[in-house]
Write a structure and sequence with these properties.
This protein is of the alpha/beta class. Helix content is about 50%, strand content about 10%.
């Protein structure tokens, strides 16, 4: 694993994802499901959306798995447990997106339960969600009231405790595996005006995990690809949330290795 991650590493990962077209199983929320599926298709992966009690069967077969608790119900929670157990049974990787765990104790409890079944390879969340997984609660619904750097200590602690990589989203994204730390300074404010953009990021992380050995590189690659696509979407003339959402999917399809090498701001 490289000590320092660069745009070249991300560009190579993107080319690998497009070559392999991994099947990514998303147990995600109803608000984000269509955008998530379209984003995965655009970037070159193959999405699947099964969240019922039989979700374990697909989770066992998929190359990548995302568990997003955004609109969880008792039935879908059972599907999430089944999917994580299936990944445990095969020693498989998966991504946890603990949506609104900072504000809603039931979600934090479910996230903790899933962590105990089989530790996720990557936890992706906003600062309040990551802080909640270490017992510090806050946030406003699905929104954070903390910055990524505020959650830095919690992210490193979570990474060390569970042997996972933690990706904290914000104006400057903060990613750590407990040893290495990466900051990604790409992105556009309109990403926060499109419902499900963070959920898309979790799915992209699952896709990159299917083709990249290094979890920190996978999380960084997903973050760079989405945030660069956001910049490119606004630059193409999409300056309002509705047009931006469409342009974001278009730019996820258009972004290539050359775009990443030109635009990525990784520190």
């Amino acid at each position: 694993m490289p000590t320092t991650l660069t745009a070249d590493h991300v560009a190579d990962a993107l080319e690998r994802l497009r070559a392999e077209q991994p099947l990514v199983h998303c147990l995600t929320n109803i608000v984000a499901a269509p955008l998530t599926a379209n984003a995965l298709l655009a970037v070159g992966a193959s999405p699947a959306m099964v969240d019922g009690p039989d979700a374990g069967d697909l989770a066992r077969a998929a190359a990548g798995v995302l568990v997003n608790i955004g609109t969880v119900t008792h039935a879908t929670a059972e599907g999430m447990r089944a999917a994580v157990r299936a990944r445990r049974d095969i020693g498989g990787r998966w991504v946890l997106d603990p949506v609104a765990a900072g504000a809603l104790p039931y979600r934090a409890a479910l996230a903790a339960e899933l962590l105990d079944i089989w530790a996720p390879t990557v936890v992706r969340g906003n600062p309040s969600e990551v802080l909640a997984l270490t017992g510090r609660f806050g946030g406003k619904g699905v929104d954070s009231d903390a910055s990524p750097d505020d959650a830095g200590d919690a992210a490193r602690a979570l990474a060390g405790k569970h042997g996972t990589t933690v990706a904290v989203s914000g104006p400057v994204d903060y990613l750590t595996d407990g040893q290495r730390t990466v900051r990604v300074a790409n992105g556009h404010a309109l990403l926060s005006k499109v419902s499900g953009a963070g959920c898309v990021l979790g799915a992209l992380v699952a896709g990159f995990l299917a083709v990249v050995d290094d979890p920190l590189l996978a999380a960084t690659s997903a973050t760079v690809v989405l945030t660069v696509a956001g910049e490119e979407a606004e630059a193409s003339g999409a300056t309002r949330p509705g047009s931006f959402a469409v342009a974001l999917v278009d730019q996820l399809h258009a972004v290539d290795a050359a775009t990443i090498r030109r635009a990525a701001r990784i520190h």
